[in-house]
Amino acid sequence: MTGLAAVGMLEAAAAAHVPAVPHTVRARHEYRGMRTAEHFFEVPLDHFNGGAGETITVFAREYVSADHSEEDAARLPWLLYLQGGPGGRGNRFPSLGGWSKAAARDFRILMLDQRGTGLSAAIDRNTLPLRGNDADQLEYLTHFRADSIVADAEAIRHALGSGPWTIYGQSYGGFCALSYLSYAPEGLREALITGGLGPLHGPADRVYQATYRRVAARNAEYFKSYPEDRATVSRIARHLRETEEHLPDGQRLTVERFQMVGSYLGGNTRVDTLHHLLEDAFVATPDGDRLSDSFLEQVRAIVTRAGNPLYALMHESIYGQGEATDWAALRVLQDFPEFRPDAAEPLLTGEMVYPWYFEQDAALRPLRNVARLLAEKSDWKPLYDPERLASNTVPVAAAVYSEDIYVDRDLSLETASAVRGLQVWETADFHHDGIADDGEGIFGRLLGMVRSVRK
């Protein structure tokens, strides 16, 4: 299928009447100043064949502040939150706080488990083989991208009886928001995006050319703040080359897996947590210095994808726009030898996905064949409609973080300039997880920006 034909198919699906989908509320609860309702929807696996055929269950949890009476809450407009990822389930709030506390003053919040995550037809090494052979699994996974997530959202909006609603996309959720603006803008009142203005066209290589540079700069900034950790990181790398160390789950810790702790560099406060992780890495033993059990347990939680295997499977595909991604992060690594695990002083990595993930992580090993097929797939449907975005009429405001190591600032501004009316707030005060640092302030600012357009 050509790109233009795929765009036409998506536009036709978005413009068509959205068929009613079965919807049930299975439980309601009230605790710590909020009320929740658990919504389950039966949606088509393939929205773009007329909605016929197999269905899957998609879950979303509603959060409402107990400050609103039930009668008043029923009249509040909906805000759909689109979680980061791909492959991350919706947040489970123990109480309202940060951006959710701010949003709950004026909205009913709908926290979506995007398809393939949480309670929405979750995908992992146990469930995916139910689809059949590797080719069958590949075909199934093609229905788990942003276009299908948007189609789910529109079906859910109609099932809830909502008019155009507000969406809030964090990170990959912002990518989904751009797809929403492309193919179903009639469903949107306004859109807020934080750290999520992805590139509208490929190849994936340019994403990693940009983000490797950002991650290298962030390494330098970190080691300037904690100069003793430069020696510690190098010592751990040398130790792992010379000595077998195993994580508490029995899997070997390699240098490249250890480098994944660089994911902490994408945060404001988490960057200091990295220092606390490294400071007690070694303990003295009868066999000489070894990595401590405490350190190894903390590292295990960082380097396994057991909790979100869909992230590893689908990550590079979010940059696939009609061409194969072909393990772009690994290919671009050749231009940045300082990140190679055999470098004398290797740098810590960011969110890149490599083929060795599927050999070294037991949760991913059974998925290695379909991961290869995903990397080779060259006929991805377009996720965005540049012409529709260029004539956008939905109020949109986006926070762009100047030093974001996951979603590059320059690529974000390129995308912002291609979306008519999109207002940018660029700031160097936050990193990718800014809403964890000051979610209330960031949400309030973006909401004020889109609301100012309506005045």
Main attributes?
single chain; 455 residues; alpha/beta; Rossmann fold; 2 domains; nine-stranded mixed beta sheet; two-stranded antiparallel ribbon; 11 strands
Description:
The chain has 18 helices and 11 strands. By secondary structure, it is of the alpha/beta class. The chain has 2 domains: 3-200 and 384-454, Rossmann fold (3-Layer(aba) Sandwich), CATH 3.40.50; 205-376, no CATH class. Helix 17 links the parallel strand 10 and strand 11 (422-427). Helix 4 packs across helix 15 (368-376) and helix 5 (146-159) packs across helix 6. The longest helix is centred in the middle third of the chain and has 21 residues, at 205-225. The chain is globular and about 65 Å long. The two termini are 43 Å apart.
